Amino acid sequence: MSGRPSLEGASLGWNGLRLLTLCVYVFMFAPIVVVILLAFNSARTGSFPMEGFSLQWFGKLFDNDSIIAAFETSLILAASSSFLATLLGVMAAIALIRYSFKGKAVISNLLSLPLLMPEVVLGVSLLMFLKFLHQPRSFLLLLLGHTVLSLPYVILVVQARLVGLRQHYEEAAMSLGANRLQTFLDVTLPLISPAIIGGFLFAATLSFDNITATLFWKKPGIETVPTKIFAMLRTSISPEINALGAVMIVITIALPLLGGYVVRRLTRGR
Amino acid sequence: MVRAEYRPFLLLSPALTSLALLLLAPIVFIFVYSFWLRAANGQDIAAFQFGNWQSVLGDSFYWRALWETFVMSALTTIACMVIGYPTAYFLARCRFGNKALLLFLLFLPFWISYIIRTFAWINVLGKSGFVNSVLLSLGIISEPLKLLYNDFSVIMGLVYFQLPYMIINVYVSLDGIDRNLESAARTLGCTPWQTFREVTLPLSLPGLGAGSLLCFVLAAGSFVTPRLLGGTDTLFFSQLIYEAVITQLDWPTGSVLSLLLLASLTIIVAVYNRFMSLSDIYRSFAK
Q1: Distance between CA B273 and CA B269 in Å, rounded?
Q2: pTM tops 0.80
Q3: Number of neighbouring beta carbons within 10 Å of residue A61
Q4: How many CB pairs under 8 A join A and B?
């Protein structure tokens, strides 16, 4: 490359861009740092100034049964709904990538449509529909609802990974005498497992994170972690919320790091 | 053995069925319900009348709420554009060795729970929050500034949530530009600024468009951010839907309000789709 990139020539402008980018990164991380900082503050108000270092709020957190219960609900919900979403999503993604058929574009758009739909509308309409059918709010409603909310994301993530996969291996296996099922289990599945794990983790995070629709669908008395925080915030910000936030930040950052590591290991192992 | 031409539909049917039952059927249901009659005793009677629609569409309060929601969403989108485009430009063009790490860092907060990232702003902007306590201790102000529970803090929270979406969309389209085009423009006598304005910027518009639509639609449908960070006079449309359905148990009005929000967003998406492709947006989710 001989020509210099356009704005890099004007070094004043380029330094301005660098400064702005730095500010954006500070902006992205500052609120998170503040939450973690305040979680260790010994003051009872949950806000500045920092009065001293203390771990008591974490202790309080683990003594709080309703928070532990919320964690359990969230984990079970995230695991089960992302399992379902991954199952449905992988099947749909395979159909969309590996086959050509009539109406593919329409179906593909239809499957992505919920991405742009306001969650409040989805939440409210499903709630009213089921109440009309005399179905009470239940865990099953949360499970199915979360599955549908994360399904489009799983389909897109898995699709994006499948596009790059060549079909030669499958054709080779079939020509060597493997039947369709054997080919799928022994060749296709190991090849797409990083995509499946990626989709699963994405769906699990979305479900673990979901607040808006969950507020509409949850049974009174049952809380997930986000709705629990939402309820706790109604009074005021307590140091416990900051501690809970800090724990969640650590969990949710560790999880994708771990997931990324596993996926990379699996891909490299081939 | 299933015949080959049915196989894709067999694979698709569980996903399509669940979407149809859990998503499309409820929308059809609220459409039907929006014509039902709300009797004086609070019972809803099956009917076909336009009373609910008339009372919502004829009430300037709802129009003002819709307008304010869209203005706030537009402000959020513009802020994301102004901050996000230059950042994406820097990220796409910098010679920093580990660019993947920079992008990864940008998306790290994305994995953190939405509600935590939202209430974090109470810690930053609140009366005894980070900004006020720093400014007070430096003696720049003598009274805490009122930064929280107003439209400003709502926009702040929304920008915080959506900026990475904007940056990644613009980044992808900037990254895909053939750099020889810019070199050619320079060789032919363009100034750097001209090159940017007449070559780079137009070529990156699809990314900017996709990011903007995404920002706008997500902001206009948001519920938790305005509820946690907004003031008493913050009027977001999704909160009216919540009030109608959950608080007042007025399903017919709730149905009309939901459909009104859905319809106006659909129009915006359709207009966008007329000029740009929606698939750009869907693709950005997979990043």
Answers
A1: 6
A2: yes
A3: 19
A4: 281
Closest among A80, A184, A181, A185 to A88, alpha carbons compared: A80
The verdict on residue A82 lying in a domain is yes
Q: Which CATH superfamily is domain B59-285 in?
A: MetI-like (1.10.3720.10)
Chain-chain contact of A125 with B122 (C-beta, under 8 angstroms):
no
What's the number of domains chain A is made of? 2
Residues A198 and A83 in one domain: yes
Residues of A in contact with B81 (CB under 8 A): none
Same domain, A29 and A75: no
Q: Give the tens place of pLDDT for each residue, B186-198.
A: 889 888 888 888 8
Taking the C-alpha atoms of residue B227 and residue B238, their distance in angstroms, rounded to an integer, is: 10
- ipTM surpasses cut 0.95: no
pLDDT per residue over B214-260, tens digit each? 999 999 999 999 999 988 888 899 999 999 988 888 889 999 999 99
- Residue ranges making up the domain that contains A211: 57-268
pLDDT tens for B138-176 read 888 888 888 888 899 999 999 999 999 899 999 988 988
- Domain parsing of chain B, residue ranges: 59-285
User: Nearest-5° angle of CA A132, CA B32, CA A134?
Assistant: 5
Question: Hey, how many other C-beta atoms are within 10 angstroms of the C-beta on B21?
Answer: 14
Q: By the 8 A CB rule, do B125 and B156 touch? A: yes
Which chain A residues have a beta carbon less than 8 Å from that of B182? 3, 5-6
| Residue ranges of E strands in B166-287 | none
- A81 and A25, same structural domain? no
User: Which chain A residues contact residue B90 at CB under 8 A?
Assistant: 17-18, 20-21
Q: What is the pLDDT of residue A253?
A: 80
Do A134 and A15 have their domain in common? no
With residue A120 as reference, give the H or E element that holds it: helix A119-132
Residue B204 sits at the chain A interface (C-beta within 8 Å): no
- Which pair of tokens denotes residue A138? 């239940």
| CATH code where residue A219 lies | 1.10.3720.10
